[in-house]
Amino acid sequence: MNFIDLDYVKEIYKPRELESYKGDFGHTLILCGSSGMVGAGFFASMGAVKSGSGLTTLGTYRETFDIFSIKLNEVMLLNLDEINILDNLERFSCIVFGSGFGINQKNEHLLKELLSNFPKPIVVDADGLTMLSKNNNLDFLKNRTYPTILTPHYGEFSRLTNLDIEYIKVNRVAIAKEFAQKYNCILLLKDHKTLITNGEN
Q1: Which residues 6+ apart lie within 8 Å of 57 measured at CB?
Q2: How far apart are CA 42 and CA 49, in angstroms?
Q3: Is 0.85 topped by the overall pTM?
Q4: What's 107's domain CATH number?
Q5: pLDDT tens digits, 126-183
Q6: Domain residues for 71?
Q7: Are 96 and 49 in contact, with CB atoms under 8 Å apart?
């Protein structure tokens, strides 16, 4: 195992060129947050901003659009009831999907389309993981050629694997590696010592 500590971070950290601007550092699309769960969209968006995304856009539905307009000063907004996001993906470098986004047929269809057709990295969290655990949706991951990062806690990983939580805890390294290999993804299994694996490392 490799451990993410200060020395590791120093090794991979790349200072930014002084002659640069926000467009040099990617454009993250956040599909998170819904009525009663605006905090999820807020924190996901600010996480992207604070970790270095040059541009960040939150896609939200009409019911929360005005709330996010007031709450997010640094983040651009798209009203998902007014545009077809699937026709407007070319400008984005990566997508974060699922935190508090709501579990429904419309969002499940959107997730399937993104996994099938978005040729760039996708992070799937929370409600997105719950939707992946239904109806063999995990199979959508197998043919992706760009990184797909899943970020479950033990309860969500139990639903994804149909394994008991206590069994996962005892065997988490082997199960996580096997899952990541099988479904062609990077798995970030949350714990007090979070485990990250691509099935090999």
Answers
A1: 27, 28, 29, 30, 75, 76, 77, 78, 92
A2: 11
A3: yes
A4: 3.40.1190.20
A5: 999 999 999 889 999 999 999 999 999 999 999 999 999 999 999 999 999 999 999 9
A6: 25-151
A7: no
